Amino acid sequence: MSDLEQYVQSVKAKPAAPIDPIPEIKPYVRFIYPGHELNPFDSKILAPDTVADPGSAIMPDANRVPEFLEGFPLDSLRMVGTLNQNGALWALIRIPDGAIHRAHAGNYLGKNHGKINKVEETKVMVQEIVENGFGGFKERENAIALSDLKDVKK
Fold first, then answer.
1. Residues 110, 112, 117, CA angle at the centre, nearest 5°?
2. Per the CB 3.0–4.6 Å rule, which of 16, 63, 109, 150 could disulfide with 69?
3. Within 13 Å of residue 146, how many CA atoms lie on the same side as its CB?
4. Is the separation of the CB atoms in 123 and 144 below 8 Å?
5. Which SS3 state, helix, strand or coil, does residue 112 take?
6. pLDDT tens digits for 91-140?
7. How far apart are CA 62 and CA 110, in angstroms?
C-alpha cells in the first residue's frame, strides 16, 4: 500500500467533527404603518415652503455694467501673481485662454456677481451674491489662491 492510500485510510478512520445545530430562525414581525398619522414622504414635510425675506437687502445690482472678468466662471480663473502699483496691490488673473488681466479691490469677477474685497500676496478674497433657492439671494465668501508655477501655462 502506498503512503497516499495509508493516509487516506487513516483520515477516514478518524471520527468526524460534530456539526453545530442549525440556528433558530426568528419569525419576521411586520410593521403596520398607521395610516391616520403623517406621511413621512410628504413633500411639504421633506422641504417645507420657504419664502424669501422681502426686506432682504442682499441683491445684485442690476444697473451696474458687468466687467470683463465676470464673463468667466470663478473656478476657471487663476491668480498668477500680484503687482504693486502706486501703493495699490493688484491681482494678476489668468483667464482660460491664457491672457492675464489685472484686478484690485472693488472689481468684479466670476458669474455670481463676485466683488473683490481684498487682494493679498497669496490670494484674492471674493464676496459673491448667489441665489438661496427660495427666490432670494445670499452672500458667499470665496477666494482665488495663488496658483503653483506648474499650474501656470506658458
1. 70
2. 109
3. 11
4. yes
5. coil
6. 999 999 999 999 999 999 999 999 999 999 999 999 999 988 777 888 99
7. 15
